[in-house]
Design a protein that fits this description.
It is globular, with a radius of gyration of 25 Å. It contains 13 helices and 38 strands. Strand 20 and strand 21 form a beta hairpin. With 730 residues, it is α+β, with helices and mostly antiparallel strands. The strands form eight sheets. It has an eleven-stranded mixed β-sheet, with helices on both faces.
Length: 730
């Protein structure tokens, strides 16, 4: 399949490549739905600059208006270059509860459900599918809000998961829509429940995995959603996990080997196990089982063995024949559309800079072709009825809220329902621009940057003058950044900052070679990629080298701490959210249910059980270099975080205090790995807003009453942030 060469890729709209801009006429059309995109870039002549200007101006005119409804008295600082600066967007609009999210159709199509606030807390609402305005809340969570839910195949029950204060010991609840009764299906303390399987063949039963017998292992139970009665299906004998079919048969099991690899075992008719497949360490994050066909005799797999990118395959379990269904030389399989009952693979997605779909089953081609004419944005089919007559469809853009439509396949008619955040409509939001940045050793770093609205008067992808910038680093690190609406990007761009997100090596989605290039490179080449990206923005005239901040959560928090300690000259300040400071203590305190995968961590991070590994972890731990911190640092931590314990933040704060280095430390007593409650998000971003303005020179919204309802505890650094002392006093 053809690739782009010589730095140009005309199919990638508005993408800057080594300082150039590639734009196509597609910018003026309705965006092609992800489900039907099959784009493999090839060489074309670049568009003339005049055409680029015409296209971008047309897009900006069509994309929306500037509204002054949300303006405040805060003015931009004089060092922010903007032509007609956008009004200041309140944090509540960006980080408060959405209006409606996670919209689903019941299996029979008669009802619609979604998450929406009840007294400020997200709950499940259910109503008639043809009249969502009649929906009413069916759950009564009054604390953290529900984030994970789905329909049971009875069409009469909603199932949802909830933990306590962020401890990730999930419980599964069943709500009877007829009686209003809610049952805790897993009423066990300090036990984590996982949904193993839900099948339309057994509407009143689901499979749940529980680690109640052994905290390191999850056994499988069959649970009645009406009564809560459960029975043991499979006792875990040391496996990472299981694969079950629609008949609730346990078909495969996976376990780690001492050398950091994995083997998949097949269940035998006599109740034992036999070898089925070996997966080398280099393929662990890009190879796995993806389900069965309707007969249960064909196994679907995402597989990177004997290749670089993870393709989608079908394996005939009778003959052993393996068939390639879809592949992309640049990206791994990222999503699949499967018929709800026939289990036919209909489309496969690959995400490089954007998500692109390959159609496998032509029966959906006309539907997707029609949907692309309905509205602007990338199309996602997020829910389907069992008879496949109705789809719930979303349209996503980078500069506005997600739009929800109910699509009637017979009539080829899509009905607009509502937007995820109506308050975003009409605001002057910024565009997110993909870019390919070369690392110092030649890797392509797929990255995204967002400029403040009005800062680029000639529309060449560069601001009129270098601006302060925030490098926003994703967590994982085995995850990735994507194109689309991003509340953090919008918030920071609105305050006058360029925002840059980088898919550094070890990020997923770009093939196993890219992931494995990050092995043993925490604080090494993974961080070099971030620095190379920052240097690129400086060279391109995008970022002011004296006003660059680094910010992120989880691994992004680690990268922040590493940047502040080991590349202190690059960053003017840092914001660490639940980031580890000591790799040894991080490794030694992982949750017990991660223990079966300990060899994966050891192979990719390092192994402190060996002398060499302990030395590496000491060398790559920010705590080792705390005395090098020269610039302001803000730390946020959840007290109940099971992944990155509170001690990770406590120990670096204590070390900084011992050496008289100022630090702002915010602790949340009812949070875990990140901030789920909107009150806590608002309070954290309120402090961050003022902190960044103080050290980068952007504008900000005063803290105001954004601490109301939050569990925030300012452990130290009160005087370091404008307005923080007053907010605490109030």
């Amino acid at each position: 399949m053809p690739r782009y060469t010589n730095g140009t890729d005309p199919h990638l709209k508005g993408i800057r490549i080594s300082g150039r801009v590639a734009t196509t006429l597609a910018d003026l059309r309705v965006s092609i739905p992800d489900e039907i995109k099959v784009q493999h870039p090839e060489d074309e002549q670049k568009m003339k600059k005049l055409l680029i200007l015409v296209l971008i101006i047309a897009v900006l005119v069509a994309s929306g208006c500037i509204s002054d409804k949300d303006a405040t008295t805060e003015e931009p600082t004089e060092n922010i270059s903007q032509i007609g600066p956008a009004p200041l967007i309140p944090r509540e609009v960006l980080f408060g509860n959405p209006d409606k999210i996670t919209v689903r159709l019941s299996p029979d199509g008669g009802r619609i459900s979604y998450l929406a606030p009840v007294d400020g807390v997200l709950n499940v609402w259910v109503g008639p599918a043809d009249d969502p305005d009649l929906a009413e809340p069916v759950t009564n969570d009054n604390d953290r809000g529900i984030r994970i839910y789905f329909w049971a195949y009875t069409n009469e029950h909603i199932l949802y998961l909830q933990d306590q204060a962020g401890d990730e010991n999930w419980r599964v609840y069943s709500v009877n829509l007829e009686t209003g009764e809610t049952i805790d299906l897993t009423p066990l303390e300090d036990v984590q429940a996982r949904i193993q399987a839900v099948s339309q063949k057994f509407p009143e039963e689901i499979l749940i995995a529980l680690n109640n017998r052994d905290p390191t292992l999850h056994d499988i139970y069959r649970v009645n959603i009406r009564t809560g009665e459960k029975s043991l299906v499979m006792e875990n004998e040391g496996f990472i996990g299981f694969t079950t079919d629609d008949e609730y048969n346990v078909r495969f099991a996976e376990r780690a080997t001492p050398d950091g690899e994995k083997e998949i075992l097949k269940a035998t008719e006599t109740g034992g196990w036999e070898p089925f497949m070996a997966i080398a360490m280099e393929d662990l994050l890009t190879t796995g089982i993806a389900g069965f066909d309707k007969t249960g005799t064909v196994l679907y797999m995402i597989d990177s063995r004997n290749r670089n990118t993870a393709a989608f395959f079908a394996i005939d379990l009778v003959t052993g024949e393996q068939t390639l269904i879809a592949e992309d030389p640049r990206a791994d399989t990222s999503d699949v559309m499967v018929h709800p009952t026939e289990r036919i693979v209909q489309a496969v997605a690959f995400t490089y800079e954007r998500k692109h779909w390959q159609i496998i089953d032509e029966s959906i081609a006309d539907d997707l072709a029609h949907l692309k004419t309905v509205a602007n944005g990338d199309v996602e089919v997020v829910s389907r009825t069992l008879d496949d007559e109705y789809w719930m469809v979303t349209y996503g853009v980078d500069d506005g809220p997600v739009q929800y439509y109910r699509y009637d396949r017979k009539e080829k008619s899509a009905e607009f329902l509502f937007a995820q955040r109506a308050a975003l409509e009409g605001l002057s939001l910024a565009k997110m621009q993909p870019v390919f940045i070369k690392s110092r050793d030649g890797l392509d770093l797929v990255s995204y940057y967002t400029l403040p609205v009005g800062s680029d008067s000639d529309f060449d992808g560069c601001p009129d003058e270098p601006l302060p910038m925030v490098l926003f680093v994703h967590g994982g690190p085995w995850a990735r950044d994507n194109w689309g609406y991003n509340s953090v990007h919008q918030w920071l761009a609105n305050r006058g900052y360029v925002v840059l997100s980088v898919n550094f090596r070890s990020s997923t989605g770009f093939g196993k070679a890219f992931i494995n290039a990050g092995n043993l490179e925490w604080g090494g080449k993974m961080h070099d990629d971030l620095i190379d990206a920052v240097n690129w923005t400086v060279q391109e005239g995008i970022a002011d080298p004296d006003r660059v901040a680094i910010m992120g959560g989880s691994y992004g928090g680690y990268a922040t701490l590493w940047g502040m300690t080991n590349t202190p000259d690059t960053f003017a300040c840092g914001v660490d959210i639940v980031g580890p400071s000591n790799l040894t203590s991080l490794f030694e305190t992982i949750p017990p249910y991660w223990q079966p995968e300990i060899e994966l961590f050891a192979a990719r991070m390092g192994d402190p059980r060996t002398e060499e590994g302990r030395a590496l972890f000491t060398e790559r731990s920010p705590l080792t270099y705390v005395d090098r911190i020269e610039k302001p640092l803000l730390i946020g931590q959840g007290a109940n975080d099971p992944r990155v314990k509170q001690a990770e933040s406590d120990q670096i704060v204590r070390a900084m205090q011992d050496t008289n280095i100022p630090v702002i430390y915010l602790l949340y007593t009812d949070e875990g790995h990140g901030f789920a409650r909107p009150e806590n998000r608002l309070s954290f971003y309120a402090v961050t807003d003022a902190f960044l303005a103080e050290h980068l020179g952007g504008r900000y919204e005063p803290i105001g009453d954004d601490f109301e309802g939050s569990s925030i505890m300012v452990q130290c650094g009160t005087e370091e942030v404008p307005g923080l002392a007053e907010a605490i006093a109030d």
